[in-house]
Prior knowledge:
Blueprint: E1 5-10, E2 13-18, H1 29-44, E3 50-55, E4 59-61, H2 66-73, H3 78-89, H4 91-97, E5 103-107, E6 110-112, H5 114-120, E7 124-128, E8 132-134, H6 148-156, H7 158-167, E9 171-172, H8 173-178, E10 184-186, H9 191-203, H10 207-220, H11 225-240, H12 243-254
Parallel strand pairs: 2-3, 3-5, 4-6, 5-7, 6-8, 7-10
Antiparallel strand pairs: 1-2, 8-9
Amino acid sequence: MSNEIRLEVAERIGTITLNRPERRNAFTRSMIDAWAAALADCRDREDVHVVVVTGAGKAFCSGGDIKELMGEGLEQAPAEQRATIGEHVHRIPLTLADMDKPVIAAINGAAIGAGLDLALAMDLRFAAASARFAETYVKVGLAPGAGGAHWLPRLVGQAKALELLWTGEAIDAAEAERIGLVNRVWADEELMPRTMELARSLADGPTLAIRAIKRLVRDGIGGDLRAGLDRASATYGVLGGSADHREAVQAFIEKRAPRFLGR
């Protein structure tokens, strides 16, 4: 794996760190491929129950490296540019879409352009107070290429999403929390401890139920109510017969903490 991406696994949590701090974690093609590979590794590993993604240094991710990706794009035909995005950058949101495990973005600094797009594709976003957010594509005559136009309206509403996309203006962490772009904002030094606290809670929780809830929520967005209720009742029935459910009920009766085994 490229040293532009670090993957550490401990206590059933896989922590992926974007590691180009000198370039504000702007990604190259090799870095985006390594990022996708790290996500796929976390998806497939039995010892990973939760994934946390963060950035080294003072930025989360400032998007694609202008020198490599945008400079190269000027020389490419439209079909070649589309292939570059589709075969490399899109591996991130598509891999995330295949993951039932919780994925948390710990946004330690600026999340700009495609860097913000990719954070939006994750399940939860926690931000440091110093973090800044911007969809800057319009400022270079482009439209969101990594899923921002898909996820942003679902999080903040169509009108607010268009405002952010059309102006390219940056917002601070407090405003991002107010409009629902991030879940929580913490002081910079508290970001990782508080994020890992929740990650450990999820990692120790009933994995079957946690992953089933994620599937139900994702499948239900924009879906048919009856189909969603059918999926919910089927899922409820399966979980009702699980060892984890029996353990939770027994622990409640015995007034103790449950010990979940993921089955």
